[in-house]
Amino acid sequence: MVTVWLRVAVTVLLRFWFSFGSNEWYQKSPSPKIAQVQALDLLVAVLQRQLFTHTPTLDADGNSSASPSSVSSEQAVAIDSCTPIMEFVPPSFSNDNRDMGIIQVFALSQGLEYWARGFGGEMASLAMHPHFPATEIPWSWTKIKFWDVSIWIKIWEEEIERSKSTEEERQLQANNRDFNLQFEYANNSIKTSKYNFFTFLPLNLFEQFQRIANAYFLFLLILQLIPQISSLAWFTTVVPLVLVLAVSGVKDAIDDFNRHKSDKHVNNRPVQVLINGMLKEQKWMNVQVGDIIKLENNNFVTADLLLLSSSEPHSLTYIETAELDGETNLKVKQALTVTAELGEDLQKLTEFNGEIRCEAPNNKLDKFTGTLTLRGEKYALDNEKMLLRGCTIRNTEWCFGLVIYAGPDTKLMQNSGKTTFKRTSIDRLMNVLVLVIFAFLALMCLILAIGNGIWEHDKGYYFQVYLPWAEGVNSASYSGFLMFWSYVIILNTVVPISLYVSVEIIRLGNSFYIDWDRKMYYPLNDTPAQARTTTLNEELGQIKYIFSDKTGTLTQNIMCFNKCSINGKSYGDVYDTSGQRIEINENTEKVDFSYNPLADPKFAFYDHSLVEAVKLNDVATHRFFRLLSLCHTVMPEEKKEGNLVYQAQSPDEGALVTAARNFGFVFRARTPETITVVEMGETKVYKLLAILDFNNVRKRMSVIVQSPEGDLTLYCKGADTILYELLNSSCNFLKEKTTEHLNEFAGEGLRTLVVAYKNLDKDYFQDWIRRHHEASTALEGREDKLSELYEEIEKDLMWVIGAVQNMAVLAVPWHLHREPSAGEWFYFNSAVAGLTSSVLFSKLLGATAIEDKLQDGVPQTIETLAKANIKIWVLTGDKQETAVNIGYSCNLLNDDMEDVFIIDGSTSDDVLTELRNARKKMKPDSFLDSDEINIQFEKSSKNLKILPDEQANGVYGLVITGHSLAYALEGNLELELVRTACMCKVVICCRVTPLQKAQVVELVKKYKKAVTLAIGDGANDVSMIKTAHIGVGISGQEGMQAVLSSDFSFAQFRYLQRLLLVHGRWSYIRMCKFLKYFFYKNFAFTLVHFWYGFFSGFSAQTVYDEWFITLYNLVYTSLPVLGMSLFDQDVDDRWSMLFPQLYVPGQQNLYFNKVVFVKCMLQGIYSSLILFFIPYGAMYNSMRSDGKAIADYQSFALMAQTCLLIVVSVQIGLDTSYWTVVNQFFIWGSLSVYFAITFTMYSDGMYLIFTAAFPFVGTARNTLSQPNVWLAIFLSITLCVLPVVGFRFLKAQLKPTPSDKVLLKIKEAKKRPPPPSPKRRLRRTSTRRSGYAFSHQHGFGALIMSGRNMRPKSPFATTGTFSPNSDKHKHKGL
């Protein structure tokens, strides 16, 4: 930090020195930039030498005089090899300073980068800041923008980043904090807050004065302090300004306080740290690099750790990385053998002093390189030995790890992105409009000032006897100059400061509505919806793109065995007595598994016919579940007898093994050579001969086992498209039936697998296993050889149960004296074919269907959001097949689409070709030279371009893999990606990293004029949540990182439609109505002063009473507009959800934009003309009924302000769509308060008490008692309101908007009884299938066969404890 301050200070000194320096230096220097860099290096080096004792001193020859240990030979070579540049030294450095060694340092400035880095300094890669102009030489003091605060902030931020980014290699020692502290590595504390106690006031005020209006009002306050031009009291600006700053400051303080609380919660989590030979409980934030910590099962990983040892065999550790990459399958990490020996021996762990050298902190989740040096030996480190922050320890009793990266240096935080200050599109528009208003204000003031100069020159100069010029004014032009600033003060109400107070109140109120909404409350875990920020509500009503995570956001992370197909029969559906399929709900009777004491009590199944088939000893059913209990890589854990816990690499695989367990085939234990299964109460030990593991190419796995009877069997499960190619041709009949079932399962969004088995000949297997051993030990082509062997033994799978059995099927019909059916003939013929082709009996057993449980209401929510013209992109770390399957499950993808493009190119050219082919199919005209976008890009420069929306010739989807996405996000392809993807209705990006998620969101923000929303639940979603305009976190899950970084949070994805279609749309409409009305009423109010200037000699005389000016925005008109902005709704929440089309105008920004603002401005100008000239004409030479004149200034002012207030009250009545008691009270109450205050302030009593303050004595009772005055008021109201009413009526009749049409439908629908709720379709079929109950990576087969992850055999694993066919458990129907 000292170095950072030093560098900033040196930068300033250098600029100052350059401004007075000699030009010779620049002329002799190779380039001005080099000269600046060299000079900066020089000054920093000199100051560092004085400040830091470890910096070497250079002698007269330019050599280091430091001790030998302080300078490496490499550094010495670097210093000696530097070319002196003495001729470039300024003359002022040529004499006295030479003895100090400064010139020598300067001469070596080109080598300082390596030199400074070598001595641990942070001054590497020194360069001048680009924020100071460096084009003109010599430097001039006037060219240096020292007064620009933004420059200093940019310098400070860049120096901080520079100090963080100079680390190129990390070096640390275990259990040596003193050694590690010298590198100043970050500790493990996390900071998401913006302020602290000391910085809050200056930083918050600085942020608030970046808002143009606040700076403008500060400027007005300064003007009002000048007596010559002040036409209003200074406190009229101070009080509102302080109020605005206070309200915004308190809100920001509350938000930041909540961030502090969240940070404190995370930083204060306990963890066990090894200190002085003892495990001591420390807070997370106190953990430092080099510490050894102990983690236990289900603990979050504290920092990025090097795994040292664990409770598992061979120091394996199982982790879940859902928070990092969205994958729910378990991954396994293994420690080095040399550290695994440490175990949990605290003495050995304390004495461990290994030294780590590794890469600098980075965001690559799948990459780590480093070395461990221990007792003189070096050991390679890679990502397989790292436990990253954000992971969770699973199925591992304990493990020890060495902290490598902590806090902000962890890979999780490196992927989190920067917290940016988010502003709504309306905020940005308002800034532009405020500038327009300022220009309009300056124009009006200029006109009035010129008018004043002309009037004073022509008339005022000769009228000074009656109206003398102010002191110091000696010319008409000077008078006009002063009047310009006087009118700036008077007319400043075109942008009233109360506008911003009201905006904050409206946003706060609408945020409370979200917090209080019971329909967004999730009772199961007591989680309400929460608006974590109060500044983005109306942005919720303009969302065009939603970027959603999959795991934990769309799904529940729960896999359930839902249905299956066995030997051509489908199981899982429930039918009533009439044979009609019924929908399964919480009232449906579950299958009773009480006969099985080893069953999982959480497992639920509803089709009783399947358990009956099991109990009837159906051969095919038994084989089916036997396969599921044997063909997997699951690890069992049984700490207490009967209490089985499965450790599955994939949740799909765990669901299949659990299903087999409940149906009587209990996987109990495994060793590297055996698998123990309790089959229908009988314990059987199968010999495990081989595991043919899963990978992404094979898409299947097989096991070869030997039964206790000595039979050799290969069991296989995998994707239907893959296994069907391996089946014997005789399987066609059963294949067709199974395919029908697969289509039905896929149509319901289930994840499907096909299962088959094959009996093996012993002699053939012995030959195959010999060749398998040779292939597995081959040095070249090992993978290809193994794949060939796997395919050889897996092919020719058959459906035949046994040729003899199937040939006997004809005996039954012949015995019953009937003709055999087609199916029976088919079995017979196939059996004959099977006997002639092979003596091995095999069978296609059927298929499984697993439900990846979606969160409740996800398909309906997505369907509703699609009707609102919102495009949904799914960004997931999951694999392609799973992501696509979920896409179909939740109605993102469907078979009615024209096409779903798969982008999986492995090179940049391949990706480009695939993207262009997709775009060509969707819109062939987009490649023509006449295409609008092509023309735009040919004409425009290379600057940022906004792409207009393009319409495809149908409905399409796009799926792109993370590898291809990496190419597509490159500069030359990103435009092609965004054009192609944005034409699709749905985009699914799979296998993406957290950083890629943020890059995709940023890409759409860059090229599309659209509001984006990102929603997720894990730490891997934080980056995109921060990047999007709106970030939504799903709370209630294990991790809370996404919620802590979000703007809004709730517990279920289905609440998103209510957040957008109800709260978002209402907030947007309310804010738009508020702004339109506010600008209108203030233009109408302020421009009356402008017209009055032409009749008052341009003297900056106000029309209204000063008290009316003060109270107009604060009292008289504030509550009615707040009432409308907090309670108004065009339709209620039910109709908002039923008609999502109402959301579209917000996306198109139709309710408030520049055109609408101009209309408000013109309406305000028109109203101001009416409000000035009607009262002026009515008062001109008019008489009271008693003959006395009322044509005086005070009567005119009272009449004008009364007309104004009634007109704006009627206008807000026209703008209000939803009337409540509150609205009525605010409008009528404000009018009543106006008349009460007016009659009170203009009374005789107030005049006698405060004579100077209330000069309008008696005006109210004298003026408002006259009928002609009220007639003029009525005329003013009619002329102001009638055009508005007429325009709205004609527009709705002649040119209705889509919103008007929907509102008309709603009015008609309200008159009819509500239609019955549509019944859910119970079944749909699909031609696509997905079947991947495997992990996303290579399976655990090799690990299991090696035995490295095996514990000693469980004492309970060899005992059978039940029999389903015993009298106690016999089925009632048997």
TrEMBL record:
<keyword id="KW-1278">Translocase</keyword>
<dbReference type="InterPro" id="IPR006539">
    <property type="entry name" value="P-type_ATPase_IV"/>
</dbReference>
<keyword id="KW-0547">Nucleotide-binding</keyword>
<keyword id="KW-0067">ATP-binding</keyword>
<keyword id="KW-0479">Metal-binding</keyword>
<keyword id="KW-0812">Transmembrane</keyword>
<feature type="transmembrane region" description="Helical">
    <location>
        <begin position="1107"/>
        <end position="1127"/>
    </location>
</feature>
<feature type="domain" description="P-type ATPase C-terminal">
    <location>
        <begin position="1043"/>
        <end position="1297"/>
    </location>
</feature>
<feature type="transmembrane region" description="Helical">
    <location>
        <begin position="1196"/>
        <end position="1214"/>
    </location>
</feature>
<dbReference type="InterPro" id="IPR036412">
    <property type="entry name" value="HAD-like_sf"/>
</dbReference>
<protein>
    <recommendedName>
        <fullName>Phospholipid-transporting ATPase</fullName>
        <ecNumber>7.6.2.1</ecNumber>
    </recommendedName>
</protein>
<dbReference type="InterPro" id="IPR001757">
    <property type="entry name" value="P_typ_ATPase"/>
</dbReference>
<feature type="transmembrane region" description="Helical">
    <location>
        <begin position="1077"/>
        <end position="1095"/>
    </location>
</feature>
<dbReference type="Pfam" id="PF16212">
    <property type="entry name" value="PhoLip_ATPase_C"/>
</dbReference>
<dbReference type="Pfam" id="PF16209">
    <property type="entry name" value="PhoLip_ATPase_N"/>
</dbReference>
<dbReference type="Pfam" id="PF13246">
    <property type="entry name" value="Cation_ATPase"/>
</dbReference>
<feature type="signal peptide">
    <location>
        <begin position="1"/>
        <end position="21"/>
    </location>
</feature>
<feature type="compositionally biased region" description="Polar residues">
    <location>
        <begin position="1356"/>
        <end position="1365"/>
    </location>
</feature>
<keyword id="KW-0460">Magnesium</keyword>
<feature type="domain" description="P-type ATPase N-terminal">
    <location>
        <begin position="173"/>
        <end position="238"/>
    </location>
</feature>
<feature type="region of interest" description="Disordered">
    <location>
        <begin position="1305"/>
        <end position="1330"/>
    </location>
</feature>
<keyword id="KW-1133">Transmembrane helix</keyword>
<feature type="transmembrane region" description="Helical">
    <location>
        <begin position="1156"/>
        <end position="1176"/>
    </location>
</feature>
<dbReference type="InterPro" id="IPR032631">
    <property type="entry name" value="P-type_ATPase_N"/>
</dbReference>
<dbReference type="InterPro" id="IPR023299">
    <property type="entry name" value="ATPase_P-typ_cyto_dom_N"/>
</dbReference>
<feature type="compositionally biased region" description="Basic residues">
    <location>
        <begin position="1308"/>
        <end position="1327"/>
    </location>
</feature>
<keyword id="KW-0732">Signal</keyword>
<feature type="region of interest" description="Disordered">
    <location>
        <begin position="1346"/>
        <end position="1374"/>
    </location>
</feature>
<dbReference type="InterPro" id="IPR018303">
    <property type="entry name" value="ATPase_P-typ_P_site"/>
</dbReference>
<dbReference type="InterPro" id="IPR008250">
    <property type="entry name" value="ATPase_P-typ_transduc_dom_A_sf"/>
</dbReference>
<dbReference type="InterPro" id="IPR044492">
    <property type="entry name" value="P_typ_ATPase_HD_dom"/>
</dbReference>
<feature type="transmembrane region" description="Helical">
    <location>
        <begin position="475"/>
        <end position="501"/>
    </location>
</feature>
<dbReference type="InterPro" id="IPR032630">
    <property type="entry name" value="P_typ_ATPase_c"/>
</dbReference>
<dbReference type="InterPro" id="IPR023298">
    <property type="entry name" value="ATPase_P-typ_TM_dom_sf"/>
</dbReference>
<feature type="transmembrane region" description="Helical">
    <location>
        <begin position="432"/>
        <end position="455"/>
    </location>
</feature>
<comment type="similarity">
    <text>Belongs to the cation transport ATPase (P-type) (TC 3.A.3) family. Type IV subfamily.</text>
</comment>
<feature type="transmembrane region" description="Helical">
    <location>
        <begin position="1226"/>
        <end position="1249"/>
    </location>
</feature>
<feature type="transmembrane region" description="Helical">
    <location>
        <begin position="232"/>
        <end position="254"/>
    </location>
</feature>
<feature type="transmembrane region" description="Helical">
    <location>
        <begin position="1269"/>
        <end position="1290"/>
    </location>
</feature>
<dbReference type="InterPro" id="IPR023214">
    <property type="entry name" value="HAD_sf"/>
</dbReference>
<keyword id="KW-0472">Membrane</keyword>
